[in-house]
Amino acid sequence: MATTYNDLYLDTRRRFKAAGVFDPTRAARELICAASGKTNAEFVRDSRLYISSEVEREVNELAARHLAGEPVAYLIGEWEFYGMPLDISRAVLIPRPDTEVLAAHAIEAAQSCAEARVLDLCAGSGCIGLAVAKHVPTARVTLGELDEEAIKICRQNVRRNDLSGRVGVLRVDAREKPSRQLGEFDVIASNPPYIPTADIETLDTSVRDHEPRLALDGGADGLDFYRVICEKWRDALRPEGKLLFEVGIGQADAVLRLMRASGFGDVQIVKDLNDIPRVVFGTLWGQI
Length: 288
What we know:
By secondary structure, the chain is of the alpha/beta class. The protein has 2 domains: 5-68; 89-284, 3-Layer(aba) Sandwich (Rossmann fold). It is built from 11 helices and 9 strands.
C-alpha cells in the first residue's frame, strides 16, 4: 500500500508516543527528513506525496534503533543549539536546552568586554563557544578540547557556521595547568564532565550506552573538573575575568564554594527552565 510522507510521520510519531519517547513529534520529523534528504520546509511541502519504499524502510530502521535507545542526534549526525546547526558524533555530548542557559550567560559576559577573548573549555561539539562567536561579532573564541575525534567535530562546526575567521580550535587538557603561551581570557565557560562515576551505570540507556564516557565521568563525587579548573585555570583569566560553569543536579552550592575558595567573587547561581540550579559563575578578584 502506498504511503505518503505525512502518513509515515503520523505512524512513526504514534509509535514513539506509545513508547514514551521524549518529544515524539520532533523525533519522527527529524528521522524522516534525514532518511529522505529533505529539510523541514521540504518535508512540509511534500507531506502529501508518496514516499519511496527505500526511504520508508530506512525510516523504520532508524525508528527501531531510536526505540532501542539510540539518540536521534547520533542517528542523523546533527542537532541544533542556540539556533545553530551542529554536526554531532558519538565523540561528543548532544547539546541540550539546559546548556543554552550557560551559553546565554557566556554571551552576556563577552558582550561586556571590548573584543573579548573567550575560551570554551571541555568544548565537545563547540556549541557554547560557537554560540558566543555567533552572537558577539567582536569576540575571539577558542574551543579547547582533549579528544581528537571531538576536535574534528569542533572544526566541522566552525566551518559549518562560517566562523573560521574568529574561532580557533586547540587540543588542551582541562586537568593540566595551561601553557602561558595560551594567554589570558576575559571569559572561560565550561560544561565539564560532572556525573559521579558510580552514577553513570544508573543513567538512561540513551546516555549510558551512547554518549562518550569521557565527557560524562566527573570522578567520585562529580566535582573533579570543577576543582582542577578553579585551581589551575584561574591564571588564564584576566583580572576581573569571568568563569562560568554548567553543573549537575545538587552540585551548585559545592561549586560555588570551590569558586569562592579559589578567589572568585560575586559568585551567582542561575536556574534552568526546569527551575534546577544549572549555572554557576563568578568574577576573578585578585590573588588568594
